[in-house]
Amino acid sequence: MASSSLTGRNRALFSVSTLLLCFLLCISEQSNAQSFPVFACDVTGNPSLAGFRFCNTGLNIKARVTDLVGRLTLEEKIVFLGSKAIGVSRLGIPAYNWWSEALHGVSDLGSGTSFSGQVPGATSFPQVILTAASYNVSLFQAIGKVVSTEARAMYNVGSAGLTFWSPNVNIFRDPRWGRGQETPGEDPELSSKYAVAYVRGLQETDGGDPNRLKVAACCKHYTAYDVDNWKDVHRFTFNAVVNQQDMADTFQPPFKSCVVDGNVASVMCSYNQVNGKPTCADPDLLSGVIRGQWKLNGYIVSDCDSVDVLYTNQHYVKTKGEAVAKSILAGLDLNCDHFTGEHAMEAVRAGLVNETAIDKAISNNFATLMRLGFFDGDPKKQPYGGLGPKDVCTADNQELARDAARQGIVMLKNSAGSLPLSPSAIKTLAVIGPNANATLTMLGNYHGKPCKYTTPLQGLAETVSSTYQPGCSNVACPEPDIGSAAALAASADAVVLVMGADQSIEQEDLDRLDLYLPGKQQELVTQVAKAAKGPVVLVIMSGGGFDITFAKNDEKITSIMWVGYPGEAGGLAIADVIFGRHNPSGNLPMTWYPQSYVEKVPMSNMNMRPDQSKGYPGRTYRFYAGETVYAFGDGLTYTKFDHQLIKAPRIVSLSLDDNHPCRSSECQSLDAIGPHCENAVEGVSDFEVHLKVKNVGDREGSHTVFLFFTPPQVHGSPIKHLLGFEKVHLGKSEETVVRFNVDVCKDLSVVDEIGKRKIALGHHLLHVGSLKHSLNISV
Known about the structure:
The protein is α/β, with parallel strands linked by helices.
């Protein structure tokens, strides 16, 4: 019996083990099998849905949304105020997660996206700050287009949503900001052009129908958000005190461009307060400006649980229901996370908000999903339905990531005879530094899983024999191994030092306190350079700038490059520039300040303009006239370009009505609206600037032509301001003509003290490189 019993037990164990093994195998097979996208109106699977008007693709979106909202109970409506909507099965509407991210490639940071066996990674482009340094608008859009293709491909296998909360178009106002890396830099014009191009790349369909979306983009964080966690100042409780002038000419332009020119499908309000009001509960900022003035065609979403923050952290309201009501009534349509969904009924029952306001909010959300085709039935039968894993991480996409990094890399110093290095002359290369073999660091924040990595060491070693010494255990560099690093440098024909930062130094919720290289990196760099017998190339990998005056002035450090966070192909791009396969053409999108600047300027002071009475120096190249380590727009190349002005007016005369007050009295400025903006003598309120650009060096290369202007000193106008830029590629001795169209009232206007645009009368100065051209605007 005992033996028989034991045998039975073994059989039972064997049966259980077999079942468990089968179960695990089934689970494994399911995880690797084809998954399917979520979508509504599956009339094939449920023919009864065909009777719903909201499933009828022959009707316009407004009619379909009205029908859908009319079929929902109040409880069901509230579900669609939060980012994790559980769906309504009786109407054939599945659960949908709104939160996906695509800052510089599809990311799995948002809970609406995941990587799996089907799609293990996606193309990881350079962090935005480096892409912006290319000043190449067509590149911005091309990256957006690739990202949206990969996003749609992932959606088709159930790995992503259709709503992506990118880009970040905040102004990089202070060099210590941990999230400056996510932005296009400090200039409103560059930020606006980046925003529009990237949004178009994400959203525009192949047919170009503005009422259809490939994926839905979102411009964030609205507005005046650029402090995360500095000393005792935190984004959840920070009140950004911003005057009307700075709001109108610095903080708002990228968001306005996103909505008006980019037709973005969403704007995200930020955690902070602006002038005492939480942005997500400010009806003037949301309903008044975004939807009223700019005519947003889409939805307004909160940063994640900003509605909770205004109650819990800011104590702006007394109850949770009041927080929900104030945000909805201000114009918020969707709350990232769960707070609004949990407390909206409380707000309704207390009479703080009515069902009509909720209808309005969810109507904006549904309209966006309808533009995406979410309510059009099976995505496989729609445009982009054929995309899948084969369209993610393609060779072309990965090459674009490499090219984007190459185009953005900025050469800041290059002594004669240093770069490019000759692969035939360099027999041994020392590659030193905590970022020399970086992988994850190259991606920056809001990254996904890349297709693959090529580290700086790997990229350089593909060309010449390279020996690696980290020098520091990490970027914090508490105890550098100077002896080993210096010995390696002394034995090599050339040295590449890859230093800088990573996300332990700068990131969301982490601002810097100073501008020095972390830890003892400076000591390591200096001693290695001192020991080196050949060229020394200092590569800075970071989002923000550093005070590297020591390296700029050290003759032993022959070259300096800033490579941002260069993405998955960063090592290849760095090697391409160092060995001359690519001629660098990047230009800084932000000012690099000395440490002395941040010692006297608190991050929490939002003022852009200087205040001499308080010793306040102002911010960014537009208003700061002090010492810099490197200036906005700096960037060297291996060739040389000359500019020649061909066409530009000397005088622009504005025609005023007979009763205009400035006809009888002397005025410093005019309103930048009115008949005089339509009837200027030189070209009906606009004119052209033509510039001949010639490559006078000995190799082909790309070059950014910047057009700046300096207005008369009225209304605290900028020292200079970027009007436009154009990227050109020229062969040796090749030339071309670059044309800028200048709208007098739009481009040459300044913002006055109360936030109104004015045309300054008198002497203006146009700048292109070393060229200066005087222009007089008169009446």
